[in-house]
Amino acid sequence: MSGKGIVNQSAMYHRPKSNYCYAYRQDDIRVMLRTARGDAKLVEVLYGDTYAWHRSESTTAGLQFSDAMFDYHIASISHPSNRLSYFFRVHGSDGEILNVCEDGILPDAELSGNGSTNGILFTYTYPYVSEADIHRVPEWVKDGVFYQIFPDSYRNGNLDYTNGRHSLWEHGPLERNSIKGGNLRGILDKLGYIQDLGADCIYMTPIFKAASNHKYDTADYYEIDAAFGTKEDFRALVDAAHDRGMKIILDAVFNHCGRDFAPFRDAEQVGPDSRYYDWFYINRHPFDSAELVRKEKQILQTRGGWTDIDIDPETGEAWLPYRTFGFTPQMPKLNTSNPEVAAYFLDVAEYWIREFDIDGWRLDVANEVDHAFWRAFRKRVKSIKPDCYIVGEVWRKAEPWLQGDQMDSMMNYQLMLACVELFARRRISPARFRERVSDLLVHNSWQVNETMMNLLESHDTERFLNIAGSKERLLAAFGFIFAFVGAPYLYYGSEIGMNGGMDPDNRRHMIWDREQWDLGILQQVKTLISIRKESAALRRGGFRWVEIDEQLLSFERFLDGERILVLISLAEEDLTVSLPAGYCSSRDMLSGKDIKGELTLRCDQTVYLRDQTGGEEK
What 3-state class would DSSP assign to 491? Predict the structure, then answer.
């Protein structure tokens, strides 16, 4: 708390032209003020044209989110001149009033003597809402459901699956480097299955020529790996997907390549005189990359794991002569700050859009590539296909990449981790989950939140079901992500109850024998997707938490009079709750049962209730 009153001034925070003040649309500027949790009774925003401050207006910044320490007050402002000056007036619970502005935190008396008739002198400003400065994201992503495929594991289109089985398509734990035989024709064969599920955006891990089964060690960025098929197979897949109204997203591995990439081979063989030497971060030469791969295996055996893999156990010194992804000699790091390297990979990105009309790029290890390259990447990609989706892989909060000049959104690993802690491990409470998720939401603009890939698992994580140990917990997590802000994301096989530990066990062969499917999970996933597809509020609406019971995760989605209340019980026993106004006489959209006044939920049960009053957003 401050020494002058009960309002904690040190907790107050705002920064113009950031996630605290941004243009959602040209006629919609979102401003946010952070205060200490429970500190402010009311927050107003006073705003007007910078050059006509005498006509300023005021509106309320509503308390929309709270985390463990702070409250976040948000207002949506429209101003016809597209110029905006503004400041915040904070009313403390003891009657104290403070003004948060460019000059600091000031009492009314000090503010009135500080040129308050001229908005230029003390207010925050959004100088002008230029169309080019608005973070435009692909609208189709807001309505989409993603389905991730690990191509080698999905399906072999050249095999005859009698009764869903084939002797060459075994299930169970895998060897790290085993080739399972999935290909593009196999994915093409199952577009109908994916569409029937309700998914309409397919993201595939890399398909370009490479030595491994995962293909993150790219040898040729202009060729489909022969194990997966041909360019004509890929064209057929994209065309067939588009005919069904589906999208195809490819994996861009531009942080590193494989040691078989021709420029790296040249740098390795020729040395400093190679024209490609500066395409990489080479510390010393000569070296033998094949011998380095063998050395890595020896060190792994010696150490019994990846700890200190970069240190030679015999010399105690670093042994890699060039920078890599992690400490993996098979994957030399690319120097995208080199103009030749940048030009090469911008051409790669353009090629697959122009020649095959792909719909997006997922950017591998996006946070280890320089920002200048990603800015150029966005400019090139969007100039060719404005609604092309650019989504990064950053496992932490990612504001520097999400300012509208680089990526549209991210794979939402932070949300995944929170879901694992609440639904799978039961290590946090619903209240703590709300705080963590609220913290994620306020770190991004709303258009970023609307296009996040909301996943529970991926090819880089343990299967959610493996952690949770029960399908009920998996279904509860599905109930959350299919109603949450952003695009739901399924990892292949989750919809039928596939299990698996860490890599490579999480990349097991897709099961095509229906007798081995969990049809209960499959049906619930289809129902959740169907409800989402039918509800604009779930896809594009606003979001707010609704506090009903400490053992209940509850929130509301709303848009144009449509309101849906989502309830997920985390109680160990049956939980009976009274429903809020508007939902006392309603129907569960999942079960079809009518609800009157009170509702009893079993552990892990999800309920979607639609407001039957037809009332306005509240």
Answer: strand
